[in-house]
């Protein structure tokens, strides 16, 4: 019985279709169908019923799905507790928002690689709400995201790592006395309001009665900075002390908000999962990195 087929079965259930499961796993719809058919042949039963144009898990399929989760969880823990107890091995699947990936995450993962050379880490990028869903769907072990806006169930946990101030980011040639002056005078490129950061920015603008000249909406902080470099306008974005030297050197940055608003960044994960010990090591290394004096030039 193929573990790939069990993973395909889980992906179909989580994403709603063979095509969506294939996209998530990097496979074609035909490849997903073939894996399911092979699993059905091995078990000697059908796992899906056709309802309209959709394939839906039947009663037997639901039982196999439940058992597959136990099998895959046990497989992921196969190497735990074996060999040198000071070493971590296996695979850690994490997600991170853009500011984390371009900031502390690289040096932190470099430390983990040096400490635990047998550990394999996969990193995925996305917006906070998207990454949260991937944890809740058991696709990722943990994610480094903006603190959730809505309460979440006791099944999951949150650990704050850092707080990032928001800044108006403008081309270096621009001069202004305040964030409000820039926002009222310059073309504005806003972040997607569906993103946690975008919502915080919009709320602060409304609270202060500032209506900027909006020319563009972007769903990427990286794209926003590229547009600023081309002098298309200004943007508002959050970044922490580790990235402040980079942005202040290349752009004109002015704290945003009255008082300056911040967002918390941290780790969101299930309270109980097979990689929780590894996530704890990641958190410890992240906090150790942030605590080093050279990482806090503004303090």
List keywords for this structure.
D-Maltodextrin-Binding Protein, domain 2; alpha/beta; Arc Repressor Mutant, subunit A; 12 helices; 3 domains; 299 residues; two-stranded antiparallel ribbon
The percentage of residues in β strands lies in 15-25%
Structural class estimated from helices and strands: alpha/beta
Broad CATH class of the largest domain: Alpha Beta
Question: Termini separation (Å)?
Answer: 56 Å
Helix fraction, binned, reads: 40-55%
CATH topology of the largest domain: D-Maltodextrin-Binding Protein, domain 2
SSE blueprint:
Elements: H1 3-15, H2 18-25, H3 29-43, E1 48-51, E2 54-57, H4 59-76, E3 90-96, H5 98-101, H6 105-115, E4 119-125, H7 128-136, E5 142-146, E6 156-170, H8 179-185, E7 187-191, H9 196-208, E8 213-218, H10 221-229, E9 234-238, H11 244-250, E10 252-255, E11 262-270, H12 276-291
Parallel strand pairs: 3-4, 3-5, 7-8, 7-9
Antiparallel strand pairs: 1-2, 5-11, 6-9, 6-10, 6-11
Helix pairs in contact: 1-2, 1-3, 1-4, 2-3, 6-12
What does this structure look like?
By secondary structure, the chain is α/β, with parallel strands linked by helices. It has twelve helices and eleven strands.
Quickly describe the structure.
With 299 residues, the protein is α/β, with parallel strands linked by helices.
